[in-house]
Amino acid sequence: MEKKLSNNLGLKVLSVFLAFFVWLAVVNINNPEDSDSKEVPLDIVNEGILTSNGKTYELLTDKDTVTVSYRVRTLDKAGISASDFRAYIDLADIYEPTGAVPVKIEVKNNKRLLDTPVAKPGVIRVKTEDLQRKSFEIRAKVIGEAAEGYDRGTPSVSPNYINVSGPMSVVGQISAVGIVINVDGADSNLADSAPVVCFDANENEIPTDERITFSRSSVDYTMPILKRKSLVLNFEPEGRVADGYRYTGIESSRPSVAVNGLKSDLANINSITIPSSELNMDGATGDKEVTLDISQYLPEGVYLSDESSKEVRVVIKVEALESRTFELKTSQIKRVGAHSDYEYQYDRDSVNVVIRGLKEDLYQLSAAVLGAEMDVEDMVPGENSGEIKFQLGDAYELVSYDHIQVTVTEKGPSADSTTASTDEGQEGTESETSEGPVSASKAETGQ
User: Fold this and answer.
1) How far is CA 83 from the centre of its chain?
2) What is the DSSP string of 168-183?
3) What's the pLDDT at 135?
4) Domains delineated in the chain
5) Dihedrals φ, ψ of 76, to 5°?
6) pLDDT band at 87; cut points 50, 70, 90
7) Tens of pLDDT along 39-63?
8) Beta-bridge partner residues of 355
9) With contact defined as beta carbons under 8 Å apart, do 355 and 399 qualify?
10) 217 and 196 in contact (C-beta within 8 Å)?
11) With contact defined as beta carbons under 8 Å apart, do 242 and 285 qualify?
């Protein structure tokens, strides 16, 4: 038996090897090895090494994945997925002069089926930069318009400050940090939270770099929505202008102002009265201009809709008085209390009357409307001094007039029959004369 086993031993060993190689050839022909690849997300490890040294980084690549190439049997190819690999760079391995970091591949699953996995690219360049931390006061940017009849108030935020961290070059481009509040159509107070955003120097919102971090991602706010009302401005000047001048009124840069407040606070307010102490015109000889801060005179809880327009320019108008001389016919003087048995004779046909007033008002005045009258009831026969009274309005002031003498005589018996006709004739003359033209000459101011 042993002899049979040992016969042709070399041939038998060779047969075994040949059988193995035949089997190997069959396997390779039916299930050959092939190349394949997968896109694998790129992980970053040991970021803390940079941040602990006050640094931040940026990957100088447009992709956040790498291509992992490997060899695998044809029949096993379908069972391989991207999740079988882990691709990462270790920032501890960064080469400072160039910023190059090698990409490392770790096979997590099906390791026995895979051969020679390789990453492409094999090196990722990393740009490092100093890390800046900066505190910003939170700014609330309000957009939109409140409902008709309402205005937006001043928003309040919580917290008031926020810390921003990121690359120095990026943080340096941020002019302000805050939130955006939309009040479009609002007719009541708003209270909510809004995400933190960054603004440039023109208060335009700028995209947030992913390397920027905030101490908090949102900010709480309250936004008052206030009722709007227009209030009339009342001006009450005090004092007395200089002699020879007259106060003619007040002009202001605007007659009313828009204010905001609670509906209940505005319900009983229709005007704003400026204290007379602010508008003193003592001794004024011309227009006096005063600039007032209207916000000082608003009731508690009421505010100007536009703080930039709180100043109102007020002009106290003062004009110089002028004097004009009017020629008054004595026939235009109405006699009061005349006796039917007396005759009255003036010593002149006309008198000069000097009236003072504003230039424009004087041009509208005539002797016919002076309302001149004389009380003759107590006059006795003989020479009497006549006193003329004038019916002048508040716009005019009597300066002087020529005094007149009146001669009173008793009528004879023969004159009784003609008295009535004479008086009627005089009254007719006075009536006609009062409507007739009157000459006037301009006198110097202050006469």
Assistant:
1) 57
2) HHHHTT--EEEEEEE-
3) 94
4) 1-28 (no CATH), 31-121 (2.170.120), 130-223 (2.170.120.40), 233-320 (2.170.120.40), 322-443 (2.170.120.30)
5) -100, -5
6) very high
7) 999 999 998 888 888 888 888 888 8
8) 324, 398
9) yes
10) yes
11) yes
